[in-house]
Amino acid sequence: MSAAIHTEYLIIGQGICGTFLSYYLQKAGKEYLVIDESKPHTASKVASGVINPVTGRRIVRTWMIEEVMPFAVNVYTEIGSQYNVQLVKQCNILDFHPTAQMQLAFNERLKEESYLRLPQNQQQWNAYFNYPFSIGETNPCYLVDLRALLTVWRNQLHTNNRLIEEHFEIDALNYANRNYILYNNIKAEKIIFCDGAAGINNLFFNKLPYAQNKGEAIIARIEKLPDTNIYKQGIVLVPWEKDLFWIGSTYDWDFENINPTDAFRLKVEAQLKHWLKLDYTIMEHWASLRPANMERRPFAGLHPLYPAIGILNGMGTKGCTLGPFFANQLVNCLTQQTPIQPLADVQRFTRILSR
Q: Which long-range contacts link 155-162 to residues 24+ away (Cβ below 8 Å)?
């Protein structure tokens, strides 16, 4: 029988939330272990990595964007400098208006929203796209290389013997003592679930207002298309690697399985035929479940009945924007007893989680 392992924090999952939670715990000088089963197509690994300050058809500001965007950009830059890899760059969105009504709506919002503007020299894009109306620009937007982030941090976890690569079995968790938990041969003061879409079925947090959301994305080779911008018209083209673009994404709330669908691929092909003047080749087609929720606000904090059990989840499509900020807030709460933003604190669900 192996000797017992003692740690302060046991983190379940190494997506965006688990990565930043362990990063800030390490900065705080805390001991931690991460349990994560390596899977190729989790939501974090196939996400576009776009930080967009405005959202939706009404082009409204993303929640808390004035705080979370500069915070995120700073920490991606910080980690990139530490590991000699570029993790974030400015990459503004060019919105090719498909109708006169959408052009008018953008122009109306342009008068009120400082993140919107008209790009210079719009005619330069005639070489790449068909567009009967004008183009709007969202500035600044940022593009995060999430795959590089997850890889460099996983390597760091391996190097420092902080990663256990296995499937987490919640039935093996012993939480009878309120002051610590036991999991196989691990004793931890706290366990924090950063388990993404799996949180929907989590024994402790499955009463939270999760909403299963399936997303699909295609990776296509489009040579000669500049990687200086993100392009949007019905679908979104995001620079991925040299000559490769991430194309997505769907927000499917009613689905039979988590497999890629012909319907999405055909939709992308039809739009590219209509919009793009360049040749393209579809290289890959992915689908994954997002940890979305009906409130569109994160879940961060400790369980009201089990103080040794916590959560950092529910980021939906905004994980690369919200994840760093709320991981830091949770670590500060755990180590310095500072409050979590009330609209993100899981204590707002005390009544439902106490049933």
A: 156/83, 157/14, 157/22, 157/34, 162/22, 162/32, 162/33, 162/34
Match 């688990």 to its residue by tokens: 18
Query: What are the sequence ranges of the domains in the chain?
Result: 5-46+147-210+294-353, 93-139+211-290
Residues of the chain with pLDDT > 90, as a percent, come to 84
Unique residue bearing structure tokens 């298309």? 225
Residue type, 95: D
With cut-offs at 50, 70 and 90, classify the pLDDT of residue 257. Answer: confident
CATH class name, domain 5-46+147-210+294-353: alpha beta
E strand residue ranges, 198-303: 213-221, 230-233, 235-241, 244-248, 281-290, 299-302
93-139+211-290 fold: D-Amino Acid Oxidase; Chain A, domain 2 (3.30.9)
